[in-house]
Amino acid sequence: MVSEASDKPKQTPVKIVVAGGFGVGKTTFVGAISEIEPLRSEALITQASAGVDELFKNGSKTTTTVAMDFGRISLKDGLVLYLFGTPGQDRFHFMWHELAKGAIGAIVLVDTRRLDACFAAVDFFEQRDTPFMVVVNTFDGRLNHSLDEVREALNVSPEVPMAYCDARVRVDVQNTLYQLVEYALLRALQGMPVS
């Protein structure tokens, strides 16, 4: 008699970090793709944040991640992606080291209106030699800059993959995750370190 467990493909867990500056869309990115209700650690933005966190002038952002976001997506052949979204504020960057442990790669989500907000994430993954890709959140399909312009502004090497993505659109998020997994696998096959 064959057990039911042997009929299922073996699951391979894969950890991916979603990083970037404050308000670039990390929570939205994780929520758009997660097959489970995402774990969110958000708190209301209050006036106490003035001078500490960048506040949006139009008041459109009312909450902020204070620990992490967590989501999961199952792909074919038993591959399961575990997504960990980092907090974007500078004061929470110390948490990135723990969140990045064991990750095969990272998405650095970028808002081209505030490009300087993602420099810390790019530097972090370059220093760790973690495979990462730069993903420009298009915010309603607006393409303010070409990927070549963004690459030059961020000073990232030509082998770092780049893509546009509307963080609210599941298929966009799915495509960027596939690209990242392929890039991390390619680096691993070439003998390059994967954190």
What do you see in this structure?
The protein is built from six helices and seven strands; from the N terminus they run H-E-H-E-E-E-H-E-H-E-H-E-H. The chain has a single domain (11-189), classed as P-loop containing nucleotide triphosphate hydrolases (Rossmann fold). It has a seven-stranded mixed β-sheet, sandwiched between helices. The chain is globular. With 195 residues, the chain is an alpha/beta fold. Strand 3 (63-74) and strand 4 form a beta hairpin. The relative contact order is 0.19.
Key words describing this protein structure:
alpha/beta, Rossmann fold, 195 residues, 7-stranded mixed β-sheet
Q: For the terminal residues, how far apart are their CA atoms?
A: 41 Å
What is the number of strand segments? Answer: 7
Please describe the biggest sheet, giving its number of strands, its sense, and whether it closes into a barrel: 7 strands, mixed
* Class derived from helix and strand content: alpha/beta
Name the helicity range.
Answer: 25-40%
The CATH superfamily label reads: P-loop containing nucleotide triphosphate hydrolases
The poorly predicted ranges are: none
Q: Please provide the ordered H/E string of secondary-structure elements.
A: HEHEEEHEHEHEH
CATH C-level name? Alpha Beta
Q: Compute the gyration radius: what is it?
A: 17 Å
CATH topology: Rossmann fold
- Number of folding domains? 1
Strand order of the largest sheet: 2-3-4-1-5-6-7
What fraction of residues sit in β-strands? 25-35%
Discrete helix count:
6
Assigned CATH architecture: 3-Layer(aba) Sandwich
